[in-house]
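Hypothesis: this fold can be encoded by more than one sequence.
Test: take the structure tokens below, design a sequence, compare later.
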């Protein structure tokens, strides 16, 4: 999805730059001196086409736009106990998925149309290749010498073509219509054969193949399509100049082209064949070029103009890369105003995690990795890896204002963009095989209590109550997890086994896969000794040592030491289930590749 959106984004935002660059190249061609021959112009147009593609591939900044405006969220406030909503995990695929922002739908429609045209172009090229191959096999060989060729080329006579063409690749040949020999003089036939020989000397057969493939890929880019048309025009003119430079017969050759024009020959429709007869308008332009006074006919491309063109186009591409995007399909929302600075090391004390209310988001004394942890919505330590230890040691203060109606999810996306723009944070996602557990049915079978009546769902905060100084689940509490210093409780109401596996991930700090195959909704209450998340090098937060193992360890975490409460491994058996240790579970991990210690100026 990101790739499709990125391609559509690049093409749309660089279209006007590509059009401006092409106009400057065209203007330079018109103002160039007469000695700039067609071979040079042909190469310059190919350089311009390459510059357009480079321009679309170079990343550029995206202007900030206000976020969408749904209903404002409630103010965020710290709570000693967190009750997580139920979440059903799939039985296959990565255990952890990093949430991404949604994109517009119509880039997919654009990609589908583009793919359809591209498939049609490729199909046309393949059909043309096999058609020419069959025509060459059925054609008659004409033993006619061709001077100046280093490639072994045959002259073929075929009733299936309408105009002279050069057919190249591994077994090149020049094909002539069957009735053409009786309509032209021997001198005119020599000129036509020289033109087709020029195509093969210049390796235009391979260049035309590349042009057709590029055209199939860039079928919906009008600027690229127009440049490819110019390359075809300059290719024919370069062959015309090759003929005149070899024979010195500009006027006879122009007269030969005029006679072809009078005979109203039709161009060969095969896309892989290069021929002397093109569109009538282009043929008239070629004749005018041959009759132009003072024109110098040469075959080699001029090196100095090519060098100037390369330098000029490279400068234009770099200048275009500095301009921001004007259109973005999945553009990330940004803060209206944001301040990012390094925390005062003398302040000391605990920091303040990233939090937002209806108008403001802030964080104090929080590490870069902890900010990234919050921005990308991670839950467990093994979901992140920091390339440098300083990402967990350097602390920052953030103060930002958000547009009215910004949701907490949008604020997290804004934080992602802020970390990228102000601290140069670069991340990537990869799937790793980590040790974990499989939740399976025990030997005695499941002992689950199927849900019958739907529980009363209260608002956040009503699921946890305090009775006799002890925090516990309310009678009408929904599914969730309660963690205290002494014990951990898992409370399920109308919960699936996949949802139970989700809470076990949070309790064990280790991947858990639901392999029970049990469907339906159940009620359960589990209480066990809490497991403290382990310490991991480069992790987002410095955890206290305890049960569990860092990512990449030889095996899954072991159970904690015996205490007044059972372990989670014992407690889960009350439901007729077991946790089996496995060495390989697919997990999506967010890797912090690099960042700058000092943020850019506010």
């Amino acid at each position: 999805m990101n790739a499709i959106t990125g391609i559509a984004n690049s093409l749309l935002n660089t279209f006007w730059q590509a059009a401006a660059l092409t106009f400057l190249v065209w203007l330079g061609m018109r103002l160039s001196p007469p000695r700039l021959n067609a071979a040079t112009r042909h190469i310059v147009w190919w350089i311009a086409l390459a510059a357009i593609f480079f321009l679309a591939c170079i990343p550029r900044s995206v202007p900030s736009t206000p976020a969408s405006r749904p209903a404002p969220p409630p103010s965020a406030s710290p709570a000693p106990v967190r009750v997580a909503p139920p979440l059903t995990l799939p039985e296959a695929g990565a255990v952890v998925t990093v949430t991404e922002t949604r994109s517009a739908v119509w880039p997919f429609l654009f990609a589908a149309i583009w793919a359809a045209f591209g498939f049609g172009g490729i199909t046309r090229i393949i059909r043309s290749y096999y058609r020419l191959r069959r025509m060459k096999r059925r054609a008659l060989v004409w033993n006619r010498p061709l001077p100046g060729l280093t490639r072994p080329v045959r002259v073929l006579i075929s009733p299936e073509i309408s105009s002279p063409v050069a057919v190249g690749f591994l077994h090149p040949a020049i094909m002539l219509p069957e009735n053409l020999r009786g309509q032209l003089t021997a001198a005119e036939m020599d000129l036509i054969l020289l033109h087709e020989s020029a195509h093969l000397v210049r390796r235009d057969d391979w260049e035309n193949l590349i042009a057709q493939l590029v055209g199939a890929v860039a079928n919906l880019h009008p600027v690229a399509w127009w440049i490819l048309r110019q390359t075809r025009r300059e290719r024919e003119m370069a062959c015309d100049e090759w003929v005149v430079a070899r024979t010195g017969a500009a006027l006879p050759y122009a007269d030969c082209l005029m006679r072809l024009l009078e005979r109203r020959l039709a161009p060969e429709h095969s896309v892989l064949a290069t021929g002397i007869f093109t569109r009538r308008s282009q043929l008239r332009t070629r004749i005018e070029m041959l009759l132009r006074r003072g024109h110098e006919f040469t075959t080699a491309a001029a090196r100095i103009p090519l060098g100037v063109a390369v330098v000029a186009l490279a400068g234009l591409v770099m200048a275009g890369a500095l301009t921001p995007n004007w259109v973005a399909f999945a553009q990330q929302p940004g803060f209206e105003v944001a301040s990012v600075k390094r925390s005062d090391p003398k302040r000391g004390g605990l920091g303040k995690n990233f939090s937002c209310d209806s108008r403001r988001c802030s964080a104090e004394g929080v590490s870069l990795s902890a900010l990234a942890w919050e921005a990308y919505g991670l839950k467990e330590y093994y979901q992140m890896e920091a390339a440098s230890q300083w990402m967990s040691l350097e602390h920052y203060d953030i103060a930002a204002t958000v547009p009215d109606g910004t949701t907490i999810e949008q604020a997290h996306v804004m934080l992602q963009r802020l970390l990228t723009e102000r601290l140069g944070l670069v991340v990537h996602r990869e799937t790793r095989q980590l040790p974990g557990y499989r939740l399976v049915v025990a030997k005695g079978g499941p002992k689950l209590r199927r849900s019958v009546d739907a529980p009363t769902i209260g608002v956040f905060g009503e699921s946890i109550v305090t009775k006799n100084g002890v925090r516990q689940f309310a009678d009408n509490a929904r599914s969730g997890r309660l963690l205290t210093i002494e014990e951990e409780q898992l409370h399920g109401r109308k919960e699936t086994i996949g949802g139970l596996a989700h809470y076990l991930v949070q309790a064990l700090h280790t991947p858990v896969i639901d392999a029970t195959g049990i469907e339906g909704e159940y009620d359960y209450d589990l209480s066990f000794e809490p497991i403290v998340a382990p310490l991991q090098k480069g992790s987002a937060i410095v955890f206290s040592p305890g049960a569990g193992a860092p990512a990449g360890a030889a095996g899954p975490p072991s159970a904690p030491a015996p205490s007044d409460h059972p372990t989670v491994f014992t407690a889960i058996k009350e439901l007729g289930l077991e946790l089996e240790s496995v060495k390989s579970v697919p997990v999506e991990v967010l890797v912090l590749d690099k960042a700058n210690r000092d943020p850019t100026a506010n």
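The first helix runs from residue 2 to 31. Residues 337-594 form one domain.
Hypothesis status: open.
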